[in-house]
Amino acid sequence: MAAIALRHTDYYRQLRDNIIDRKQRLTSWLTAKEFIVVPSFINTIVVRLDNSKKARALVEGLKRHKILINFGGNKTDKVGLDNNCVSFVVGTDQQILQLQSAIQELLM
User: Fold this and answer.
1) What does the angle CA 83 – CA 78 – CA 100 come to, to the nearest 5 degrees?
2) Separation between Cα atoms, residue 16 and residue 56, nearest integer Å
3) How many CB atoms lie within 10 A of CB 51?
4) Could you write out the three-class secondary structure of 54-83?
5) For residue range 44-63, what is the model confidence (pLDDT) as tens digits?
6) What's the predicted TM-score (pTM) here?
7) H/E run at residue 46
8) CA 37 from centre of chain
């Protein structure tokens, strides 16, 4: 597998750059909505909320929109995150738009 990746470095570089760009855009959007985004170097975004009640409400609200994210309070999910945190993987542009739309609706 690594040998294949080495023969297609341009493809994987573009893929990496696209993920970084989507993550930066989503992070900026979340920050503008006053979410606390925990810095990371992977394609996962961790958001810390004021308390576990708000974190669980976000998780449950997104579930109603058929968007699944990880909840720090579930110790089998994300070791090291407390129950004020939720995390999700940076997805496609379409998935990010769906996430933003759902969060916007939940904030109203």
Assistant:
1) 75
2) 31
3) 10
4) HHHHHHHHHHHCCCCCEECCCCCCCCCCCC
5) 899 999 988 998 899 999 99
6) 0.82
7) strand 44-48
8) 9
- Our count of domains for the chain comes to 1
Name every residue whose Cβ is closer than 8 Å to that of residue 12 and which is 6 or more positions away in sequence.
5
Strand partners, 70: 87
Q: What are the φ/ψ torsions at residue 8 (nearest 5 degrees)?
A: -130, 45
Among 102, 88, 4, CA closest to 40: 88
Residue type, 60: E
CATH code of the domain in which 36 resides? 3.90.1150.10
Q: What is the pLDDT of residues 7-17, one digit of tens each?
A: 888 998 999 99
Of 14, 12, 26, 41, whose CA–CA distance to 90 is shortest?
A: 26
Q: What's the domain range around 90?
A: 2-107
**Assigned token pair, 74:** 């579930």
